[in-house]
Amino acid sequence: MANRLSHPNLSQLRQEAASENISPQRLEELSNINIELTRIVANNANTAPDFLRNLSSESDRIIRANITGNPNTPTDILFELGADFPQQLLENPVFSLLLLENPNFVADIPVATLLSLLKIDEVSPQFLQLASNHDDVEVLLTIAMNSKTPLYALQALTKVQNIEVVEAAKLHVTLAGEMPQGWHETAISAMQTTNLPRDRQSEMYLWAIGAVPEYLLKTLDAEVRLHIAESSNTSEQILENLAGDSYSRVRAMVAQNPRTPIKIVEDLMGDVSDIVREAVSYHPHTPLTLHQQFQIQLEATENPVTSVDILRQLSTSQWMRIRLGVAAHSNTPGDVLLRLASDEDIMVRKAVALNVNSTAEALEQLATDNNDAWISKIIAAHPNNPATNSFDGQKTTIHDYINTARAQGIPIMPAYAVYDPNLLTAMAESSNYDTRQRVAQHPNTPIRVLEQLVDKENNSILETALSNLSRNSKTPDSTLQCLAQTSDLKVCTAVARHRNTSSKTLVQLAKHHRWEVRTIVAKNLKTPLEALIQLIQDKHATVREAAINNPYAPSSILEELSILKNPNTSGQTLNQLANSKCVITRQGVARHPNTDKNLLKQLAEDKISMVRLGVAENPHTPSSLLELLAIDKDNQIVVAVASHPNTSLNILEQLAILGKPDNQIKQAAAKALINRFPDKLGKNLADCITSFTPIFTRLLVFLNPSTPSEILAQNIYSSSWLERYAIAQNPNTPTEIRAALARDGNRVVRAAAKNQGERG
């Protein structure tokens, strides 16, 4: 704008610019003098519409606010500026006129402007009612947020085809009333089942820096829970919590995590999922005999000719999966099923309901089960239910539920018509694919027949036969040695723990490329000494730990490790051990608190990364040495550097900006920064707000008491009532913001705001 200088008659010019009798041309001239006069011109109703349109692109907020309140402003400009200046738009005399003249006025308003209007206190109930017919979900959620929204509008919102809108409307104070207590529990329950969009990397980062409440652990993305279950930094309490996770891969990670208490791992041996049971054998402290004992019991429950006496014994197994197999077995007698009808596990009780041997008494017992409606449906169709036999119109039979049960993991036994090994041998020659497949999986198929199928098949029949052979207790070592050469992980792990596997085969498997196989070999009591020495120095920590715990581990190495466990071991002894050819011994020296700085510097240059890792983990490693290790090519070493209390602030800040949020180095550095410099947490949390719309990450940030108050204040009008609740209960929320939330339309939000305000 041209020549905006001070003017000697500025007071008179102000009066002239505000005059009702001034011409549009003169107003344009005045606006060229300075910005103060331009603001007055923008507010004058005589200013020409076209000139107001030109002024609307000015960066000055006062100019644009005055244009929004000017009745001479073109409608499209009003709508455009109204998003930033809803108060001025609402007070503009033209607004009410447009509302009367145009029945579709609300629909014509841009969504951004409409949302701004709906959020201000001065909006009328009538306008809220008109807007409730809008088809935009964000608009409807904003209406449900306003405490002035009339009852009839809220009732209409409860009938829309959007769960989030319906929930918000039902929680409105006008419909549901005030909430004198229980708001926190209601909010937590809603958070644990929320459908807010997810950002997996940010969730992982927030958990890593300790910014996620434990009660929301199982609400995190499944892949995030998987990462937590796998981490060596996860506490025993969290691992115990995740041991009951609905996602089998999470439970599997818990089962194999070395930090998981052995009691929990043993319980997971009876998990319904085979991948969880498989993972149990990867834990360094679970004896192979445990898995072998389980496998024997499992074979019995899967064998269609298992006797009643054996099934009766197995019905009291410590493992749910075995009791489940008994409950589903076709030979299980009624008295055993009656006892299993009271089993603590719902899947066992379902299997009892599906078993045609279940007595009327067992069905009566199950009829009192209120934990699963599906059981009631099965009982209603059960042939032994007297009520089922009392009428002929029964359309659903128990067999209709079999496929559904199998999909849920209940091991309903196939209706094997053939048990004779001779007949199975003949059937293996069939030209029918399905027939050969059933022979390959049959528990009674002779070993030699399975071997033949392995030799001549090249499809899923081959995989089934291999799996059957690797788990079959009758498979000889000669066959197991051949199976050890396959690329299938499950087959190789089964061979590694098989009771018939020879020492020769174990030596072969000790060199397997998968750490899971090497871990099982390290635990096997038949593994030769030379293989154990090799495994004790394995690059994978779990393999090393399993080998060290093998009772036949070499005494010389164990003696050295015992010396290194002694915190009083002398520097002279440590210097001698530092020259050991055994990698794990040198790592122990590198970790020892009595190792001097010169020796640490020597070990920091070791060609084996696990030795350098020991230096990075040593509590007395100086900052200068940590700075060198911070550029190591091994990420695990850099993570250790980031977690070290002696690492300089400069190095931590450099590591904290590396990569994406799921980068482990970045996470470790950020957590260290927060632990050592708590004031930095606020910035870390603020940086996680990358979305302008509600997502689960934002909710987690708003819940945290270290979140900057300005971030909380900026999001007071979130369309998610959970986010507003989080802000309302946050002790860092400014008083005036909390007071505004105490007037929120949502009963949970306003209750939390009032309670926090009283406490503050």
What can you see in these coordinates?
- There is one protein chain.
- The protein is mostly helical and 760 residues long.
- It has 6 domains: 1-101; 188-194 and 690-759; 200-280; 305-407, no CATH class; 421-553, Alpha Horseshoe (Leucine-rich Repeat Variant); 556-681, Leucine-rich Repeat Variant (Alpha Horseshoe).
- It is built from 56 helices and no strands.
- The longest helix has 15 residues, at 288-302.
- It is globular and about 110 Å long.
Keywords:
760 residues, mainly alpha
Summary, kept brief:
The chain is mainly α.
Which class of secondary structure composition applies to the elements?
A: mainly alpha
Number of helices: 56
Structural domains: how many: 6
CATH level 1 class label of the largest domain: Mainly Alpha
Q: What value does the Rg take, in angstroms?
A: 36 Å
End-to-end span in angstroms? Answer: 50 Å
Task: Show unreliable segments.
Answer: 1-5, 390-395
CATH superfamily of the largest domain: Leucine-rich Repeat Variant
Q: Please outline the major beta sheet.
A: none
Per DSSP E runs of 2 or more residues, the count of β-strands stands at 0
Say what the CATH topology of the largest domain is: Leucine-rich Repeat Variant
Strand share of the residues? under 5%
